[in-house]
Amino acid sequence: MSEAELIKNVKLAINPKFQDWVLFKNGTYIIFDNADTIKSVKDEAINQMKEFGPVFTGGPAGDFGTIHLNKTEGWIVSGHGYGMYTYVSPSEIENKNPNDIEIGVFGRNKRDLDGKKPEIIYINSTRK
Q1: Given pLDDT bands bounded at 50, 70 and 90, which one contains residue 2?
Q2: Phi and psi of 3, rounded to 5°?
Q3: What is the dihedral of CA 86, 92, 98, 103, to 10 degrees?
């Protein structure tokens, strides 16, 4: 999936009431409720990704939930870290009828990649 396709799908996945968010290379994004109080959304996103992105066995970062999307194909995987989610496209999973656990583990692994090497590809912001 191209970066443009990823951005398009994440835009469709996020509730429109959330206007401030940062998207990372592997599909993990962080929503900010209080972006106007943050000096640098980019720096804060990197810090949160480094703290909550990496997965450690037996810790809360291994937990996840799977959300089925209505406005676009795919799923969102929630996990450790407030406002942090990972988009998973059906094209990324080999099984054409995956269950929530397969989707969740796949999304958790994508978040782990973003956490270990955070690379922002898009920032959506209401700040000027």
Answers
A1: very high
A2: -60, -40
A3: -20
